Amino acid sequence: MRVRFSSLVVVLIVVSTLCASAFAQDVIYGPSTQGRRSPAAMKAAAAAPKPAYDAKDFSGVWWGRNNSLLMKNPMPALTPDGKKAFDLNKPSNGPRAVVPALGNDPIGRCDPVGYPRNLWLNTRSFEFVQTPVKTVQIFEWTHATREVIMGAKLPEDPDPRWYGYAVGHWEGNTLVINSNGYDERTWLDSLGNPHSDEMVLEERWTHPDAETLTVTMTLTDPKYYEKPWVGAAQTFKLQLPKNVTVLEEAYCVPSEEESFNANTRNVAGTGKKEAPADTRNQIKQ
Fold it and tell me: What is the pTM of this model?
């Protein structure tokens, strides 16, 4: 009996050790701004096996270079209300750029980025997490989350929210996401393109191979744009290794932003160490 018991203990120890070895993988952090990864992360990605392919499995950390929502297609004409909102936005990027101290990008105050801007912000990563009833997007910048309820209907008269309300369904292997109820204080992008609280989005996500996601968006906002804005296809690549890659921690910290504004950002525009409080409003680029 003792021999059998001892043998059983040895077997259990061996099995436990093998299981621990199988799961004791180092956490690999996703790319930081502009897609930079540490040498260790790049080495792990190069050695990682190609993940199994399931056209409806979007799980993992994704990153896309030079994606820009709808900017690859021309912006439709603005309505009079849209033109007023557009002129009020003072970005520090693009052809209308002003010095940061004189801009009013809401991100500089650490206001929520909102959607869809957070999908493209500084080419940062995002993650898809899927359950049978809900698909969740987690964004690297501020670790904000967006919930997509599968098989549900959108609210008819929603109170605006920073990330709106989103529902999803499958059309074959395409994940279709419809959303509404967005807070108009957010911008569509760093160029200051606006949206109203009447904006609705349709996104069509596809997964053509194990390491690629694509999305096309259609923005409809009759209050600000004379016709729907149909975007070009955007591509994201899976960050390997799939199961142990996690998002970088990237938060907009108000105290840090205030200090940076007062001592660096606003000095560039005003020459003064302290600028008026309402101009401390540009994110570090």
Answer: 0.83
